[in-house]
């Protein structure tokens, strides 16, 4: 199976919804990651045939399906909202695409429905109506219906976003094993970076209707090629600070550190940072790389005022106000007590800072530490866990 | 804990000591004319005109017997039931697809058209009397059940579209899309998935169509003479040389209430839901 999007564009009411999307997806799972309004749902609707693109082509297995009506396509779609047929039982809900396909006998349909229902843990609930199910069971029914018939393209649009935390974890694990060896093209969208990382599948990062980056998610997390990718894959959100590169040093809010040697990623030829006279940059640091109270040798120190401390139990999120009214969030392990209004010092190891060009948003230099982590698998795994 | 809750509930009830009394007073005020009419319907005319009492001295079913044996009466009663039912069915057949289109598709002038439909209800029915009379005379619809049913669609279809559109817009569009992805054709989706989902809306709409058509007198009377004459028209023409037949008129009145009461009994749950969900 292969799904190819070629220069897909879509405009609505003068706004660009999709801008020149070209992608090649093969069998198995592909993650579609991006913030809200990035175009994830729109892209999926175009692939499903629910929304005709203004320009561009959608090809499945070499056949152009751009103008094929939805009913004639071999697709399945799972929505973020739990969409089932309320007047039909769970059994009939799952059976309906099979009945319409007309390529299975009655007994064959029955076998398939029970098989899929068992897989999704719905075996006991087949006689119920969707309204008599919990949210998780409703979404399982919707997924079961999508899985019942073998399709070329299976689209899951943030299927776990409306579920509570525990159910989400469990269903995520189930889905991961289910789609591992799928012969369909499975496109799974999410706005949740943790979800994108745990699926560890080839990932497309979308932003403002454009493809920001395509690649392996672990690598993208460790060395985000652009600020947009770093932001899309950071949860809690990436801290962003302004900086200037001058005379081989990166200056930021009254402190500075030696500019690391510029990397030259294959896809973005970048001039050597150290040679620039003065260049405006954006520094990104993940909240769990900000520490309080103790700074090792070579760390950057930022005097800060404590604004708010959020305790989640396993972590404490400290909201800090730096000079120049810049906000910084530190994720600290365990439950720690702070008094809002007091002064403190935030420490950041420059090794954990990503330096992005302010204009293009491209990564100019990553720290030695995060580069090293891409090299060794063990440390990549450690780096990938966003709460680690 | 449980005892505390019970106590709270009791206290809450005790806060309105007059609620019961006020309710029954109100109900009695509403019911009195109906009871009076029922009382009249089971009394001979002399008793109705002679003595004043709530409980009839000589109960009789003569009035009802007259009603069901005189073709002028029972046939007009049937006429009303026939054209009212026809109207409800025809209005729904037209209004369901129209409401679906208004709720799901965007087309040029859709909002204006939707509003324009409602404006049909803003003109008094008398405005339409003359054109209906003339047109029906020339196309042969005068004094037919179909003619009255069509005439009543004039104000029932906009209402039906309005009510149904509200319900349909409450159903997520994603269900339509899912059905298309599953391979349902539009007619099949409509019958298998969509109509069962709006059952209550159809019940509510049918009730309102029935009700408005049942109580409408002016148009129904003008475009009929004998064959499709409505019961309400017959009731207004009971003054004979012998004076007004009070008992018979009261019996007809009681019988005229019954179909409405039966219909509302069937849709009572739906109507309550409809008031909560739709735009009734």
Automatic annotation (TrEMBL), chain A:
GO terms for cellular component: ATP-binding cassette (ABC) transporter complex, substrate-binding subunit-containing. PROSITE patterns: ABC_TRANSPORTER_2 (PS50893). Pfam families: ABC_tran (PF00005), TOBE_2 (PF08402). The keyword ATP-binding applies. Keywords: ATP-binding, Cell membrane, Membrane, Nucleotide-binding, Transport. The keyword Membrane applies. It comes from the Bacteria. Residues 3-233 form the ABC transporter domain. GO terms for molecular function: ABC-type ferric iron transporter activity; ATP binding; ATP hydrolysis activity. This is ABC transporter ATP-binding protein. It comes from Nonomuraea cavernae. The lineage of its organism: Bacteria, Bacillati, Actinomycetota, Actinomycetes, Streptosporangiales.
Automatic annotation (TrEMBL), chain B:
CDD domains: TM_PBP2. It is a multi-pass membrane protein. The chain crosses the membrane at residues 21-42, 81-102, 114-136, 148-168, 189-215, 246-267. Pfam families: BPD_transp_1 (PF00528). InterPro entries: BP-dep_ABC_trans_perm, MetI-like, MetI-like_sf. Residues 77-267 form the ABC transmembrane type-1 domain. Keywords: Cell membrane, Membrane, Transmembrane, Transmembrane helix, Transport. Its main location: membrane. It comes from the Bacteria. It is found in: Cell membrane. GO terms for cellular component: plasma membrane. GO terms for biological process: transmembrane transport. PANTHER family: ABC TRANSPORTER PERMEASE PROTEIN, MALTOSE TRANSPORT SYSTEM PERMEASE-RELATED. Belongs to the binding-protein-dependent transport system permease family. This is Sugar ABC transporter permease.
């Amino acid at each position: 199976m292969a799904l190819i999007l070629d220069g897909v564009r879509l405009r609505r009411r003068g706004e660009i919804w999709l801008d020149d999307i070209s992608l090649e997806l093969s069998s198995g799972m592909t993650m579609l990651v991006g913030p809200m309004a990035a175009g994830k749902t729109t892209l999926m609707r175009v692939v499903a045939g629910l929304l005709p693109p203004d320009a561009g082509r959608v090809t499945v297995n070499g056949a152009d399906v751009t103008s094929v009506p939805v009913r004639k396509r071999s697709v399945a779609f799972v929505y973020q909202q739990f969409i089932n047929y309320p007047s039909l039982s769970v059994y009939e809900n799952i059976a309906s695409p099979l009945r319409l396909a007309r390529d299975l006998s009655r007994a064959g349909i029955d076998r398939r429905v029970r098989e899929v229902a068992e897989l999704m843990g719905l075996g006991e609930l087949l006689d119920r109506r969707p309204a008599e199910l919990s949210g998780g069971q409703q979404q399982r029914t919707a997924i079961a219906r999508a899985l019942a018939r073998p399709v070329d393209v299976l689209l899951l649009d943030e299927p776990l976003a409306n579920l509570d935390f525990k159910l989400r974890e469990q269903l995520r694990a189930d889905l991961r094993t289910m789609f591992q060896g799928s012969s369909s093209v499975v496109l799974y969208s999410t706005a949740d970076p943790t979800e994108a990382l745990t699926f560890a599948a080839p990932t497309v990062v979308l932003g403002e209707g454009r493809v920001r980056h395509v690649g392996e998610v672990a690598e993208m997390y460790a060395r985000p090629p652009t600020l947009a990718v770093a932001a899309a894959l950071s949860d809690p959100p990436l801290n962003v600070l302004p900086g200037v590169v001058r005379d081989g040093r990166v200056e930021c809010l009254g402190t500075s550190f030696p500019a690391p040697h510029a990397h030259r990623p294959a896809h973005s030829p970048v001039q050597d940072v150290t040679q620039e006279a003065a260049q405006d940059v954006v520094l990104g640091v993940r909240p769990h790389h900000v520490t309080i109270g103790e700074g090792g040798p070579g760390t950057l120190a930022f005097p800060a005022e404590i604004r708010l401390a959020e305790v989640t139990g396993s972590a404490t999120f400290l909201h800090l106000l730096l000079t120049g009214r810049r906000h910084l969030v530190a994720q600290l392990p365990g439950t720690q007590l702070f008094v809002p209004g007091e002064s403190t010092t935030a420490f950041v190891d420059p090794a954990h800072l990503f330096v992005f060009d302010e204009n293009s948003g491209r990564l100019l230099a990553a720290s030695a530490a995060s580069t090293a982590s891409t090299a060794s698998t063990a440390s990549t795994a450690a780096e990938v866990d966003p709460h680690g | 804990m449980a005892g505390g809750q019970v106590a709270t509930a009791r206290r809450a009830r005790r806060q309105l000591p007059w609620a019961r009394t006020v309710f029954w007073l109100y109900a009695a005020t509403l019911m009195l004319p109906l009871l009076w009419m029922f009382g009249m319907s089971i009394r001979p005319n002399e008793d109705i005109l002679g003595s004043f009492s709530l409980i009839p001295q000589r109960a009789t079913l003569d009035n009802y017997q007259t009603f069901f044996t005189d073709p002028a009466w029972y046939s007009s009663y049937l006429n009303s039931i026939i054209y009212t039912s026809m109207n409800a069915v025809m209005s729904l057949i037209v209004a369901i697809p129209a409401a679906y289109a208004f709720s799901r598709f965007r087309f040029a002038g859709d909002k204006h058209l939707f509003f324009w439909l409602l404006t049909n209800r803003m003109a008094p029915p008398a405005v339409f009397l003359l054109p209906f009379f003339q047109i029906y005379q020339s196309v042969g619809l005068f004094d037919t059940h179909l003619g009255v049913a069509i005439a009543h669609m004039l104000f029932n279809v906009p209402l039906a579209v309005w009510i149904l559109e509200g319900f349909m817009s409450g159903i997520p569009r994603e269900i339509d899309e899912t059905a298309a992805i599953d391979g349902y054709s539009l007619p099949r989706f409509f019958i298998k998935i969509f109509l069962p989902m709006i059952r209550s809306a159809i019940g509510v709409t049918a009730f309102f169509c029935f009700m408005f058509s049942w109580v409408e007198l002016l148009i129904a009377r003008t475009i009929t003479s004998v064959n499709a004459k409505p019961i309400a028209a017959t009731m207004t023409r009971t003054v004979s040389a012998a004076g007004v037949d009070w008992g018979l008129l009261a019996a007809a009145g009681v019988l005229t209430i019954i179909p409405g009461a039966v219909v509302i009994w069937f849709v009572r749950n739906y109507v309550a839901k409809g008031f909560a969900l739709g735009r009734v």
